[in-house]
Amino acid sequence: MNVALVTPRYPPTHAGGGEISARLLAEQLSARNWIDDVTVYAFDGDTTETVGGVTVHRLGAVPQYPYTLPNELAYRRLRSRELDADLLHAYNMHLHPTVGRLAAERGLPSVATLNAYPLIDWADIEVTPSLQRRLYEHTVLRVERPRLKRQMRNVDVFLPLSGAVERVYREHGFADADFEVVPNMIDPTFDVPAREPADADRIRLLYVGYLRDSKGVRFLVDAIERLPSQYTLTVVGGGPEQQNLIERASDGGAAERITFTGQVPYEEVAQAYADADVFVHPGVWPEPFGRTILEAMQAGLPVVATAVGGPAETVPQSKLLCDPGDPDALRESIEYAAANRERIGSENERTVRQEYHPDAVVPRFRRVYERVLDRYE
After folding, report:
1. Which one of 156, 276, 294, 373 has the fewest beta carbons within 10 angstroms of its own beta carbon?
2. Region 103-130: what's the mean pLDDT?
């Protein structure tokens, strides 16, 4: 079986967890004896290279907005190539219409991972849109959305990262589509330095991720003020809300216990997990998954998250899930996690090895691929 993976960006070009997940998928597929070849087609350069044993064709950069333009450019560049593929797999959302259109024209089986909501108005999923995004939604996207969705519907099977993603798409124009939930997988090579022994006089909380309104970090900042003085918080990541969060912390009573590192290289994030006792993911929107949650669990940390979106399906301890936007609920879950951190951390390490290791996740892709290919025989 030859698989062509189509994605806007591919490592070493890196923008976030989506690129990491695309690389893991390509490399793990190429290592399986039931796969003959995996070829990646990305749109972030003008080279052909081998990355981690996988051939990557970078077919020139395409803009992100408006969606019609990158999809038209990507479609034309892919159409001009002879794709030696038995199946197309679209990843990282923005070019899913391209893959649906090309698959229909060439009679190729296709699947698409759903890990974001680019064609849905953000206010519908509890994300506060920027002025630019709001104007785009009310003008260009309103016009182009029907055609892009029609092209997406040519995809045979959609692979949402969580049941939460599937529900959102069913409610926004894909009620009758074929869905199969396949989560992200852990990176077996992700190596966390040895952690220091637990210190009863100090509880170190950690958040890793982009800082925008929907991430709910403001409620975590508020929760710190409600926690005893031995609790500290490190916020790793940058984004449009960073300065607002710094000011919010300064206005409160716990500024000296909160550290904002800004964005750091991905290679340095592992040390942040090693230096923490509890990981907190306080999102207020139906986040598709949350790779940082997997990494924290892999590092042996308890994870406190809100009971919304994919994270609520990943965190195995119900007492560590709380209502979004509620600092008091966060405080209670954080205190429970801290008091039981050794036991819960061990549980999390076992969970990710059993449920999210490539050996558990990749066979789920195989079953979907073979089911789709059977339709074309």
Report:
1. 373
2. 94
Rounded-to-integer distance, Cα 347 and Cα 337, Å: 12
Q: Indicate if the alpha-carbon torsion angle 303, 304, 310, 315 is positive or negative.
A: positive
Q: Which pLDDT band holds residue 14 (cuts at 50, 70, 90)?
A: confident
User: Which pLDDT does position 193 carry in this prediction?
Assistant: 84
Give, in degrees to the nearest 5, the angle at Cα 344 between 342 and 345. 65
The whole-number average pLDDT for the span 127-132 is 88
158 and 178 in contact (C-beta within 8 Å)? yes
What pLDDT score was predicted for residue 15?
63
Chain-centroid distance, C-alpha 108: 27
Residues 6 or more apart whose Cβ sits within 8 Å of residue 210: 16, 237, 238, 239
Q: In the chain, what are the domains?
A: 2-185+357-375 (3.40.50.2000), 203-355 (3.40.50.2000)
Residue 87: C-alpha distances to residues 90, 142, 209, 225 (Å):
10, 31, 33, 52
**Which of 289, 311, 262 is closest to 93 using CA atoms?**
289
Q: Is 139 helix (H, G, I), strand (E, B) or coil?
A: coil
**Helix, strand or coil, per DSSP, at residue 149:** helix
Which has the closest alpha carbon to 321: 165, 202, 164? 164
Q: What is the number of other CB atoms lying within 10 angstroms of the CB of residue 350?
A: 11
Residue with the two structure tokens 């998928």: 25
Virtual torsion, Cα 295, 300, 301, 303, nearest 10 deg: 60
Would the pLDDT of 342 be above 70? yes
Among residues 215, 195, 350, 208, which one has the least CA distance to residue 277? 195
- Tell which phi-psi region holds residue 265, choosing left (phi > 0), alpha (psi between -120 and 50) or beta: beta
3-state SS class at 375:
helix
pLDDT of 9 over the 80 cut:
yes
Predicted TM-score of the model (pTM): 0.94
